[in-house]
Amino acid sequence: MKCGIVIVLALALLSCTDDSEIVDVEELRGSWVNVETTTDTLSFEALFEGKEFMLLKKAELYRTGPYEYKILPNTNISIHWSLASTLTFEEYFFKVAGDKLDIGNFYDSPSGEILTFKKID
Q1: 99 contacts: CB under 8 Å, gap ≥ 6
Q2: pTM, rounded to two decimals
């Protein structure tokens, strides 16, 4: 019986650990280029106090411009295109590992569901 209680407590403790990492916005500062298209770039900046923005630049103008974002736990990001007529944020996959950034396709790129960017500065 005691062994069962110890196992239950151990499992409860393991399930409560938070293995989610939130990316530090300072890691994002600079420019990132889409590894597939090499024309789409993201720049992460703090344009207004208390709000973080990423600027999307593409060859065509559709969906380019500033996006307000919030980094969420568990490899997610919440994004709002600042030029949209709505104020809603959408959640996308988001993971940074060194100089590589994977993000859900938030701007309808033909490159696939997950877009990969490489830091260039």
Answers
A1: 118, 119
A2: 0.79
